[in-house]
UniProtKB/TrEMBL annotation:
Organism lineage string: Bacteria, Pseudomonadati, Bacteroidota, Bacteroidia, Bacteroidales
Protein's recorded name: AraC family transcriptional regulator
Superkingdom in the source lineage: Bacteria
Organism from which the protein derives: Phocaeicola vulgatus (Bacteroides vulgatus)
Amino acid sequence: MVMGDITRIDTVQQYCDLFEVEALHPLVSVVNCYEVQPIRHSKKLYNIYAVLLKDTDCGTMNYGRSLYDNEKGSMLFIAPGQVMGSDDDGSLHQPAGWALMFHPELLRGTSLAHIIKEYSYFSYNANEALHLSEQERKVVIECINNVAEELRHPIDKHSRSLIIDTMKLLLDRCIRFYDRQFITRENA
């Protein structure tokens, strides 16, 4: 849904539709951006969570009313109700990287639902992207691939808990990587 210059994303399916990829689950999806067609820049109002691993320089991105520190090889974290993106300059760009999106409903009744706000990188106050080392990048991609693999598995009574546990592992690893990023900077 488009509101003025902002595209509103209320569901995982809407995000997948932007990239013309199949959503394998109504509440969570992984998009391999290397497999999508070029798209135009846009600002998006997310009403889902998004964890983005960017392997391309997207230029300056707006995050709420601020600019986001973003460069090639960084991770971005978006919570419901947040606006992120760049103004449409009329040209197409080829996304590169990975996107993990999940609807808050996926977390309902889980321990992750109770602690998701503790992951401070989902806050507008954290206006710095996570810059990964090559080893950290491999860990992140492995976690994202594990979620994707579970999504390709036929849904059964274990699917939700395995997906959420894998997502929690990814989020916990990212806290560790953020801590490393700031400790390294303090020691420099």
